[in-house]
Specification:
This protein is α/β, with parallel strands linked by helices. The chain is built from two helices and six strands; from the N terminus they run αβββββαβ.
């Protein structure tokens, strides 16, 4: 009788564990998310949706250098990375400055921008490549180059 109670508890634990891993794999929850801004909205952008988007880009100020990004990496202002509100982490995006035609390919590793009307925040390294350091903001075109499968998305 005593062992039957433990068997039932063990069975319940096994079922909950399997359900938890399934939820994580399919993006229902993310227990590893640790930033103050809150977890990902759950929006998953397909290649077709991310094919080409135009809007305003800005770049991170130097005060964020060395801080953690939403995906857990340490932000390096000199790397070619960016923050986007919904593209999966690890997505490579070609960003083209519409005023001068210069472009750069960046990897999404953070969430943002948190300023209304902006579609992407670039690292200073990426901003220099497309010539927006003087103005701070510029109209850009975004084109997804590579997307990760949903099972590998961490946020």
């Amino acid at each position: 009788m005593r062992h039957e109670k433990h068997f039932i508890n063990f069975s319940l634990l096994a079922v909950l564990t399997v359900a938890g891993f399934s939820a994580i794999q399919f993006g229902a929850c993310n227990p590893f998310y640790s930033t103050a801004e809150g977890a990902d909205t759950g929006v998953r952008t397909t290649k077709k949706q991310a094919a080409a988007t135009e809007g305003t880009a800005s770049f991170y100020a130097g005060q964020f250098h060395g801080r953690k990004t939403a995906n857990g990496e340490t932000f390096n202002t000199y790397q070619l990375t960016a923050a986007h509100p919904s593209l999966p982490f690890g997505t490579w995006v070609k960003v083209t400055n519409l005023s001068n035609g210069k472009d750069v390919v960046v990897r999404i590793n953070d969430r943002g921008p948190f300023v209304k009307g902006r579609i992407i925040d670039l690292s200073a390294g990426a901003a220099k490549k497309i010539g927006i350091m003087q103005t701070g903001i510029v109209q850009v075109k975004l084109e997804a180059v590579k997307l990760l499968p949903a099972a590998f998305i961490s946020g």
